[in-house]
Amino acid sequence: MSIRVAVIGAKGRMGSQAVDAINEADGLELVAALGSSDSLETLLEQNVDVAVELTVPKSTEANVRFLIEHDIDTVVGTTGWTAESLSGLEDLLTAHSDTAVLIAPNFSIGAVLAMRFAELAAPYFDSAEVVEIHHTRKLDAPSGTANHTAQRIAAARKDAGLPAVPDSTESDPQGARGAVIDGIHVHAIRQQGMNASEEIHFGSDGEALTIRTDSHSTSAFMPGIVTAVRSIDGYTGLIHGLENMLDL
């Protein structure tokens, strides 16, 4: 039996490609493609199994809460989530214990692997910083991918008992050292002509390691979205990161 799928944000760059990818994927049936002016109530008439939420940060939380309240498994590609909003979803999911929500900072398999490689490398280097580059249309900074990468690096360093990353900066009135996420500096660049890129820099005395991933087109995210839609029925609760659905 096919998985009945809805795409919310179907007229955006990611959403329109997700519509095509789902239409082309074996075992998936696209039953709804909603734009910003369409009511979510439409989904209740279509007996949707999985919703793919690809809107904008100001809309995504309300959309996902609606989907949870109606027990629809949801794959979320919209970034900009805060710790508070994620906690709110977890609380809501306790009352809908058979429902699953995946929030994926990145659906690119290359980006997911880069985050995993960074997590493995983190305990072996003194310094770690993240640089992300995106197109100028991106609404949030730093990216969800960079934020997630920094958190995973910090957790791996903490588990290894490492001290804080060395940094002698005493004055930075212009914010040149970037954001600091769990002790890891993250730098965001918005550049015309780019799509999505991340560099993860590690260093110790006498050596350096750079891990880089580039997504040249939103088509790079489609295999991950399809994988998530096919897999989410086997999960419950809040899942943070596509890596949790891959054998990594």
What would you note in describing this structure?
The chain is of the alpha/beta class and 248 residues long. The chain folds into two domains: 128 residues, NAD(P)-binding Rossmann-like Domain (Rossmann fold, 3-Layer(aba) Sandwich); 108 residues, Dihydrodipicolinate Reductase, domain 2 (2-Layer Sandwich). The protein is built from seven helices and eleven strands. A six-stranded parallel β-sheet has the order 2-1-3-4-5-11, sandwiched between helices. Strands 7-8-6-9-10 form a five-stranded mixed β-sheet. The longest helix is centred in the middle third of the chain and has 16 residues.
Task: Please name the defining characteristics of this protein.
248 residues, alpha/beta, Rossmann fold, Dihydrodipicolinate Reductase, domain 2, 2 domains, 6-stranded parallel sheet, 5-stranded mixed sheet, 32% helix
Task: Summarize this entry quickly.
The protein is 32% helix and 26% strand.
Mean pLDDT metric: 95
Annotation field: number of helices: 7
Give the H and E element order.
Answer: EHEHEHEHEHEHEEEEHE
- Taking the alpha carbons of the first and last residues, their distance comes to 28 Å
The level of helicity is: 25-40%
Task: Briefly note the CATH topology name of the largest domain.
Answer: Rossmann fold
Task: Characterize the biggest β-sheet.
Answer: 6 strands, parallel
